[in-house]
Amino acid sequence: MIDGGKPSRLAIAGAGVAGAYAYRLLRDRGYPADLYDVKKKTRCGISPCAWGTSGEFIDLVKVAGLDPSQYILERVDQVVIDGIRFKIEMITIDKPRFVRDLLQGAGVSYGPVDLEAYSRVIDATGVSRALLSPIRGDVFMPCFQSRIETRRELEARIILGEIGYAWCFPLGENHYHIGCGSLVKDPHDVLRSLDLMGGQSSKGDTTICSCRGRIRLTGPHLSLPFVSDRSADGIWGVGEAIGCVGPMAGDGIVPSMKTVRILLKEWDDPEAYTRSILEEFHWMEGERTLVDKLRNMEQPTIANARVLLENSKRMGMRIGLKEVTSLMNNLRVKSPPSSTSWRDSLPLRRGQTVWIASCKGSLSTSFLLETG
């Protein structure tokens, strides 16, 4: 990391899980980085997320020198999917606290990233992919979720339907994340039509916060390039910025942390980095193929079912081929998507803050835009 005889300057754009994890691991190796981010308008201060992940999270947290038990809210061993109960090994985490502890009070700049001022920039801007080139045919799933406090004890539940699903995940102390993502319908409308809480809401139910967001379902194999040459030592993408989110379940916490570790391992070799990312997350390609089939109203095959059967093991699910086939059919689109479906997912709204990348002459920068 030497540039002209001087130590390289590093910048990380995005201070979510991927950016904060990269900051922490680089700092622990003696390479401090400047952090840039946009101000989130969510109550929790981070991008929308159900806070559910797999047990692999535990070892990845230990790599950062932190105690994973401090962030685990609930260990979920059963989930009801479309009325069928399955065993599962999932955890819900305190994502805001985890990000804060990774950063340990590090300063974050809310302004443009001057790419010429840094030898290397890490694009951890998630769904915005602010610094890497746009992805042709990018696919996003709009989401809506709420954090609920209730006196009732609710089960972990998932309801599938038309290339999307609604969820209820426990967060401990009578708190739950209840949300929905859909490629063909407004997720808020879908959520209001469902009974995720097992009956009519009671006077003891309180909605703490609600927010909208979107998830990239493109998959890494269709999110190339992962590295560009717009700065001296390149812009290197991590996490959701390079499509490392499960296209079917939308799980991105553990994949984003894994991409950071791969980046550190292949720090000086962009080709090896690209190859390692594609090898690590090759399973996402099969899921994206199924998403496309469902989106195009095509009949899923046994091969598609076997992909889900194998991939469900990431969450420790014990499920048979017959059940997978049944659940997969519940995801099929029943009617052609409207003109306001996934193709127009989440247009910019008044007051929304977004990442914008710009290149003018020899100066390449990113900046923030608040839409009017």
In short:
This protein is 25% helix and 28% strand. With 372 residues, it is of the alpha/beta class. The protein has a single domain (2-370), classed as FAD/NAD(P)-binding domain, CATH 3.50.50.60.
Q: Which features characterize this protein?
A:
8-stranded mixed sheet; 9 helices; FAD/NAD(P)-binding domain; 372 residues; 25% helix; 28% strand; globular; disordered C terminus; 6-stranded mixed sheet; alpha/beta; disordered N terminus; 19 strands
Could you characterize the architecture of this molecule?
The protein has 372 residues and is α/β, with parallel strands linked by helices. The protein has one domain (2-370): FAD/NAD(P)-binding domain, CATH 3.50.50. Helices cover 25% and strands 28% of the residues. The protein has nine helices and 19 strands. It has helices at residues 17-28, 56-63, 95-103, 187-193, 253-265, 270-280, 283-295, 302-311, 321-330, and strands at 2-3, 6-7, 10-13, 34-36, 52-54, 72-81, 84-93, 108-109, 113-114, 120-123, 140-149, 157-160, 164-172, 175-182, 206-216, 227-228, 235-237, 353-360, 363-370. The longest helix has 13 residues, at 253-265. It is globular.
